[in-house]
Amino acid sequence: MSVTIESAESKPRCSWSQTPDFHAYHDNEWGFPVRDDFRLFEKLCLESFQSGLSWRLILAKRENFRAAFHHFDFNKIAAFTEEDVNRLLKDEGIVRHRGKIEAVINNAKCAQALVEIEGSLATFIWRFEPAHDQRQKPQTASTSPESVALSKALKKMGWKFVGPTTVFAFMQAMGLINDHTEECAIRAEVERSREVFQRP
């Protein structure tokens, strides 16, 4: 069960962000709606890298991931070769997991194909935004019907490492739901951002 805590700055935050290394990410990014395709792709990739690991580790390495993967420009990543895979496997700044690295390259190609059909990743992904009255109490679930549906849709198109739990964490972070706790100081800011957000 998630609770909200007061930080040293006397700002109530979601309990997972109680350490200072999470404050900026929690206060300025997590839950705010995103429609930029490269940012959406980045988050899907980083969530897949997190599988079996901690988000703290991934966040600490995020700039290294961005440098290694051309800021998650899937058009550039789609052209990666086995030589690039071998280069990345030697990069100590990222998580050196062959399956996950190869999944990023695979998913970059899938992203290109999806953009060809839909016009953008955002157009496709935001169709899975839950209806307001169907959202569960904040931070009480690790999947949702919508994350299951989006996971299935992506897998059907060939995406890898996009299970329902990974996709749910992605939806939380990219603002498809506002999963900040009711007492969290950032919840109202995220809700205001969602209200004015122009959905693709």
From TrEMBL:
Superkingdom as given in the UniProt entry: Bacteria
Arranged from A to Z, the UniProt key words for this protein are: Metal-binding, Zinc
Instruction: Check the UniProt entry and state the signal peptide residues, or none.
Output: none
Question: Which GO MF terms does the UniProt record name?
Answer: DNA-3-methyladenine glycosylase activity; metal ion binding
Binding annotation for Zn(2+) = C14, H26, H180, C184
Give one Pfam hit by family name. Adenine_glyco
Q: Can you supply a Gene Ontology BP term from the record? A: base-excision repair
Q: What is this protein called?
A: 3-methyladenine DNA glycosylase
The record lists the organism as: Hahella chejuensis (strain KCTC 2396)
